[in-house]
Design goal:
The protein is of the alpha+beta class. The protein contains one helix and eight strands. The strands form two sheets. A four-stranded antiparallel sheet has the order 3-2-1-5, covered by helices on one side.
């Protein structure tokens, strides 16, 4: 009986790091998907001419959030239209195009191109979302 309990404890102790790793990997994937959806939502609101203004996404790394905003720059936006999405401080989100991007009305052309990289704080798991000059938003598996 004591040997069985010992074996169970050893197996359980060895499983914990794998379970944690699986959880962090899932968090990175989930949030990368959230970023992709958020970028597409801002782009679609621009293409559809919602409010007749461009829409964009602002990445606030200090506050661990991103904000869908109306306008061509975050500082001059109308905050009544803001939509905030928060994420875990255990994730690093780094856009290569700066803190914000917006999409032109009706065409959906982005103001910048580049990538948004989501990593775990240990940098064990990485997901990248790409935005090209045509406005194609791609998050390869």
């Amino acid at each position: 009986m004591l040997i069985t309990v010992g074996i169970i404890l050893v197996v359980a102790g060895l499983s914990i790091p794998f379970l944690f790793s699986y959880s962090v990997s899932g968090d990175v994937t989930t949030y990368a998907n959230d970023i992709e959806r958020t970028l597409r939502r801002a782009q679609l609101q621009s293409i559809n001419g919602y409010t007749g203004m461009p829409w964009g996404v602002y990445f606030d790394e200090a506050q661990n959030k991103m904000v869908i905003f109306q306008g061509s720059e975050y500082v001059s936006r109308d905050p009544h239209y803001d939509q905030e999405i928060t994420y875990s401080p255990a994730l690093n989100v780094v856009p290569t195009f700066g803190a914000e991007i917006y999409f032109s009305v009706y065409s959906g052309t982005p103001s910048a191109t580049g990538t948004v990289t989501v990593t775990s704080t240990e940098a064990l798991f990485i997901k990248t979302i790409k935005i090209n000059e045509l406005g194609i938003i791609d998050a390869p598996n």
